[in-house]
Amino acid sequence: MAAQFSKATPDEVNFLEVAPENWIGLGGRFAKQLRAITERTPLVAHGLSLSIGGPAPLDETLVHEIKKFMLLHQISIYSEHLSYCSDGGQLYDLLPIPFTEEAVMHTATRVKRVQDILEQRITLENSSYYLSPQQSLSEAEFITAVIAEADCNMLLDINNVYVNSTNHGYDAMTFIRQMPAEKITYFHIAGHYLEPDGIIVDTHGADVIDPVWALLNQTYTEIGIKPTLLERDFNIPAMDTLLQEVNQIHKAQQPFI
Amino acid sequence: MVSQTVLPPDSELLKIQTAFTQHLRNPDSIPVPQGLDARRMGIYSDLIFNNISSLISEFFPVIFSLTDSEDWRSLIREFFINYQCETPYFPKLADEFLQFLMGREGTNHEPDYLVSLAHYEWLELCLFTSESELPVNPLDKAELKHQRLHLSDLAIPITYEYPVQQISNSWQYEAKQASLLLFRDQHDSVRFFELQPLAFELLTTMQQESGILLPDWLHQKARASGPGTNIDNFIKAGIDLVEQFNREKLIYTSDTSN
Fold first, then answer.
1. Is A31 on the interface with B (CB under 8 A)?
2. Does residue B156 belong to any structural domain of this protein?
């Protein structure tokens, strides 16, 4: 994918997202491709390894490296998942933070520390989750409490709302209405995988389904349009096919421009 | 006042998260934490296992291709149970896996070349992703002859106990040492040269801080190699060899040109 974008960025694509943990400290061919991309396409840093709600000490070295990476590539937005991925050792995946008061305070304290180091607000994404290890707050209460306490921004992942609303049996649009609209800086949209027993796994490996497009439309109607990123991590189709989905985002935004 | 970003030891959150990840690391032996749905915990243990397995298989493609799927799964499971990865960076996961392999006994039915091959695949990745760059131009002939020469850090001379560069599905097992120069070329691909003992010695000496003056070094080696040696031919062969590395821009000089 990087090789393709390093030659030319299609007109339909206004910005791209990179995971800094894939690129920091990297030289050689891939670094040259990234440099070619950043010279003409704005990037957002979308982190994977910060473990913002995790039990292990906050990796401040990583935060400092991300700050340098953002400066080098002129990146102004850093988003991360409202989840954790480390128990002292990295597990490299997004695990569900218990929805408790203690977790709100713990996570918000760490977000503030990250924001102090970066000297800017960070953006937290509502993660997909398959179960909640402990729950004294609802998911919506938990997210809004962390964002309010930490005074950070939010990335609303529309597909994750759909996945979670299906897996946990709640109404997606009611959830979106509970989110702090004034803090939302951008949206994600993606495809997912439906297990035979009806559980949806957030794989980013398939096309976006119609109910998710409908949810995006409804979100635009109610809280306005924001930059929207199509995520695709696996089974990546030809560029033309991907651009059809990017164009569908443009089309959905058109009535509001 | 600096707020605590670390949980106190008696934290309820710490307790829940620790129980959660301990099960994910070792789902066959550590039960699902009380009150949690096994089917949904299974989604998490599959996700993290498959993610790491797929990353490691990309970093160590030869080992992956030679290992049967049961053994591969046991190896990755052991990695989860016995090893704590520290790096937040995905490409550096290869370092962690190599450390893991080097720090364990191994099982009886694993090939004895496993760690050598892992080191070779790891070194290829290190060179491929190194932040070093080759110079724009190679040295000229005069520089090769008159200046102190060093080896680029994008070139690593190394001896393995097995011919790791040949190992594949069709390779006939042979415990035979291989000395190689692994390097990143001008197109950012990683390649190797097979090295004779003298070439290996020359390149490792060039890696040292003082570098070498090529004709002096060759002259000394020629004299040491016995009375039958034609010194001029020996030196010429040595210079030709270094020329080959120089064409790949792997040689540099610390002397300032006049």
1. yes
2. yes
B113: Cα separation from own chain's centroid: 14
Are residues B93 and B183 both part of a single domain? no
Q: Report the first-to-last Cα separation within chain A, whole angstroms.
A: 30
Domain coverage including residue A100? 2-246
Question: Which one of A22, A27, A28 has the shortest CB-CB distance to B90?
Answer: A22
Nearest chain A Cα to B7, which residue?
A55
Please report whether residue B132 resides in a domain: no
- Å from A252 to nearest chain B CA? 32
Q: How much is the ipTM here?
A: 0.96
Structural contact between residues A156 and A126, judged by C-beta atoms closer than 8 angstroms:
yes
Which residues of A fall within a CB distance of 8 Å from B84?
A: 88-89
Residue B129 counted as domain residue: no
Which of A29, A93, A137, A193 to mutate against chain B (most B CBs within 10 Å)?
A: A93
The single residue listed with the structure tokens 């990234």 is A34
Instruction: Report the residue of chain A nearest B40, measured CA to CA.
Output: A130
Question: What is the domain extent for residue B239?
Answer: 141-253
> Does B188 sit within 8 Å of A28, measured CB to CB?
yes
Average pLDDT of A37-51?
Answer: 96
We report the CATH number of the domain holding residue B207 as 3.90.930.50
B70 in the same domain as B23: yes
The CATH number covering residue B100 comes to 1.10.150
Instruction: For residue range A179-232, list pLDDT tens digits in order.
Output: 999 999 999 999 999 999 999 999 999 999 999 999 999 999 999 999 999 999
**SS3 per residue for chain B:** CCCCCCCCCCCHHHHHHHHHHHHHHCCCCCCCCCCCCHHHHHHHHHHHHHHHHHHHHHHCHHHHHHCCHHHHHHHHHHHHHHCCCCCCCHHHHHHHHHHHHHCCCCCCCCCCCHHHHHHHHHHHHHHHHCCCCCCCCCCCHHHHHHCEEEECCCEEEEEECCCHHHCCCCCCCCCCCEEEEEEECCCCCEEEEECCHHHHHHHHHHHCCCCEEHHHHHHHHHHHCCCCCCHHHHHHHHHHHHHHHHHCCCEEECCCCC
- Give residue for tokens 């996700």: B47
Q: Is residue B125 in some structural domain?
A: no
Write down which residue in B110, B133, B151 finishes a domain.
B110
CB under 8 Å to A88, separation ≥6 — which residues? Answer: A55, A56, B84
**A107 lies within 8 A of chain B by CB:** no
Number of domains chain A contains: 1
Span B23-44, pLDDT tens digits: 999 999 999 999 999 999 999 9
Q: Are residues B194 and B244 in the same domain?
A: yes
